[in-house]
Amino acid sequence: MSIVSEFKEFAVKGNVVDMAVGIIIGGAFGTIVKSLVEDVIMPPIGLAMGGVDFSALQVVLKDASTNDAGEAVAAVAIKYGVFLNNVLSFLIVAFAVFMLVKSINKLKKKEVAAPPADPTTKECSACFSTIHIKATRCPNCTTELKAA
Ligand SMILES: [Zn+2]
Question: What is the pLDDT of residue 71?
Fold first, then answer.
């Protein structure tokens, strides 16, 4: 089998398309949640806490400086504000996925819980044709049957 046809089979047969859709939607969803946290949720919280910009919260370990050669050296800092934003983003995504899985499981459970339909036919004991469940005489071979 050539590599091309092998790849074609892989791409068409497997869940590659489903997977690709999931990854693309997931990526877009992640961007939306990130924006929701950074642009919608955190600014009012920061304002309520006295005008704190969460993405700017950091502990500076070493100030920005210039080295002996005159080149700028970036400050070393623990950016826990950005980290908090990302943690909140993750919690929102995790909660959304949890709700999704929960509702899917609920639907699945409903499907399983549906009782199997009562049989409406039976097999004639003499000619083995399928006849109505309440028949006392087979319409095909006229054998008298015990009521089921
Ligand atoms: Zn019969």
Answer: 81
